[in-house]
Amino acid sequence: MEGSREPIGVIGTGYVGLVTAAGFAELGSYVYCVDIDANKIARLKGGEIPIYEPGLEDMVARNRERLHFSTTLEEALEHARLLFVAVGTPPTYSGDADLSSVYAVVDAMPPSDRHALVMKSTVPVGTGRSIRRAFEARGKAGFRYVSCPEFLKEGSAVGDFLNPDRVVVGDEGDWAGDAVVDLYAPLDAPLVRTDIPSAEMVKLASNAFLATKISFINEIANVCEETGSNVLEVARGMGLDDRIGPKFLQAGIGFGGSCFPKDVSALKQLAGNSGYHFQLLNAVIEVNELQKRRVISKLQKHLGTLVGKEIALLGLAFKPETDDMREASSLVLSARLLADGASVRAYDPVSEEEARTLMPGVGFADAALEVVEGADAVVLVTEWKEFKQLDWGAVAQRMAGDLVVDGRNSLDSVAVRAAGLSYEGIGTR
Ligand SMILES: NC(=O)c1ccc[n+]([C@@H]2O[C@H](COP(=O)([O-])OP(=O)(O)OC[C@H]3O[C@@H](n4cnc5c(N)ncnc54)[C@H](O)[C@@H]3O)[C@@H](O)[C@H]2O)c1
Q1: Residue 308 CB-half CA count within 13 A
Q2: What is the pLDDT of residue 2?
Q3: Class of the 232-424 domain?
Q4: Which protein residue has the closest C-alpha to ligand 1 atom 11?
Q5: Which of 29, 176, 254, 421 reaches 20 to 30 Å from 331, CA-CA?
Q6: Under CATH, which number does the domain 8-193 receive?
Q7: Ligand 1 in contact with 104 (CB < 6 A)?
Q8: Per-residue pLDDT tens over the stretch 295-319
Q9: 422-424 and 403-406: which strand pairing?
Q10: Is the shortest distance between the CB of 20 and ligand 1 below 6 Å?
């Protein structure tokens, strides 16, 4: 039986779709989830969560009765007016967003005066307008469209859904926009209700700004290394200025993940396609690419040639608390190390299965103390909590060499050095 909350459909049950579905179910909606991946749907029906996201399994389990999973659209179209779209929009070779999955959904919609697509996927500005035109051209002019970009962060997605910094709704002032606003109302978050292109731009501009902040502090870190300053102290001093703030001022070996690289590139392409050369974003992207490779020169500084050297990687996922390997810095780093003749072994608490298919030539271990065995150098790539708590004395005993490169500036350098190891951070002393 459906309750008083509006039932919804969610198309695409990946990181965004499944969290959105579970979140709205938690708020009381019946949610009809659709995915073309039959294996994923079978697992979800069996109560299995196909991704690693803290708190998601419990939230899905709590709301089992309200969550329905299917490979077809019928149930969602029958029970829900609002169909949230959370399919992937990966980059194409040109750097533009690949909208083929989005358009597969658009094409699958029947003519209707009572349904709306609510776009959660990150899409270029102008996509909403193009979809409205596509609906009109195909005799589906009654289908409404709302842009509702998603800002959740993998690793804290459940909390982010329930406690968002803001909800952005771009619409044409119709019933569908009102209905989306009503759905989010219990969360009591600041609402930005605006036109569709502005909502689309909020998402791209936010991610591009955060990526810019990361590349900025990474460049400061690189200059700190040349000038003898310590980026940790510099970032602390900068971050206390409330115009700047402390977040995204952690220097390291670059940003990765399924969003920042592709969204920065999509905004750069979008600007270029519209006749504007977005110079700043070129630098943000280039700095990030170079940053991923900086570890190589640090290793060479201590070890000389890397041919035949044993390098152990701690962490592989693009950030802690996720199994997501998309655009992870570890992919570039391991490929560069192998190309330079090093032997690479890696350990990650959750992303090994995914990593194995993406990192041919890399060996895998089941624990941190196992991966460091016989290593000439250890590189911290992903700052999982368990690495911060490592027994560095035990690490030193197992390593063949003594170099620890902290690619995320997250280890206790005093403890590492006290164990007789050499510590190298990014822009630190
Ligand atoms: N992952 C994040 O942290 C995050 C945050 C904010 C926004 N976004 C955006 O949200 C979108 C989804 O990202 P994600 O990480 O959840 O992707 P994902 O790859 O984890 O999930 C996408 C899902 O869509 C399914 N799918 C593809 N085509 C389909 C179709 N025609 N019908 C039904 N299902 C289909 C896939 O099988 C997959 O399960 C992207 O545009 C992304 O940029 C992601």
Answers
A1: 2
A2: 52
A3: alpha beta
A4: 121
A5: 421
A6: 3.40.50.720
A7: yes
A8: 999 999 999 999 999 999 999 999 9
A9: parallel
A10: no
Ligand 1 atom at minimum distance from 149 CA: 7
Taking 60 as the threshold, does the pLDDT of residue 38 lie above it? yes
Angle, helix 127-137 to helix 100-108, in steps of 10 degrees: 30
From the CA of 419, how far away is ligand 1's center (Å)? 44
Encode pLDDT of 197-255 as tens digits.
Answer: 999 999 999 999 999 999 999 999 999 999 999 999 999 999 999 999 999 999 999 99
Give residue-wise pLDDT tens across range 365-378: 999 999 999 999 99
> Nearest CA to 154 among 66, 42, 255, 287?
255
**Any atom of ligand 1 within 6 Å of the Cβ of 349:** no
pLDDT at 24 (0 to 100): 98
Q: List Cβ neighbours of 395 (8 Å cut-off, separation of 6 or more).
A: 368, 369, 372, 378, 404, 419, 421
Rounded Cα gap, residues 81 and 114, in angstroms: 6
Domain borders along the chain are 8-193, 232-424
Catalytic (active site) residue 148: no
Q: Cα–Cα distance between 361 and 337 in angstroms, integer?
A: 11
